Amino acid sequence: MSPRPAPDLASRRDQVVRTAREVAEADGWAAVTMRRLATELGVTQPVLYSAFAGRQALVDAVALQGFDDIAAALEAVEVSPLPRMRAYLDFAAAHPRVYEAMFSLPSGLPFATDDTPEPLRRAFAAVHDAFPDADGTRAEVAWSVLHGLATLQAGGRLRAGEAPARLDLAHRMLTDGGTR
User: Which of the four pLDDT bands, split at 50, 70 and 90, describes residue 61?
Assistant: First the structure.
């Protein structure tokens, strides 16, 4: 019997990232350990370490994939503020642990630098397209507002049932200076 061929590294990395996302969404990031992932995938821990140097590299890979996904969600809707804002908040609500990896967990990813990875640039560009200006400040403020709403809502720190009203007010404030 010949030995089983080793899967290519890209395929292995995709499988590990997918499994980490599934475990995190089901049981939280504390449950995402190399031991648990090895068990879930039916491999040894050294196999995982051949794909990722450690847990931080894996969390960063999940975050990068999350930025690709949120960029795709934003790009899939009309290039105007309200649809992009709604798509952003919908993504954060639908993928809370991925969103947590993107913004709340410690990260080795460079943000807002020359070294910023393409998925982050693409996600920011999708926000910037809806909130255009010369230097990106308007998009940074819009992203900050959306992030605040998403994070506070996910943490149960905002009144239940008021999400549509908050989105409407944020939209008016960001687009025409409206107040409640």
Answer: very high
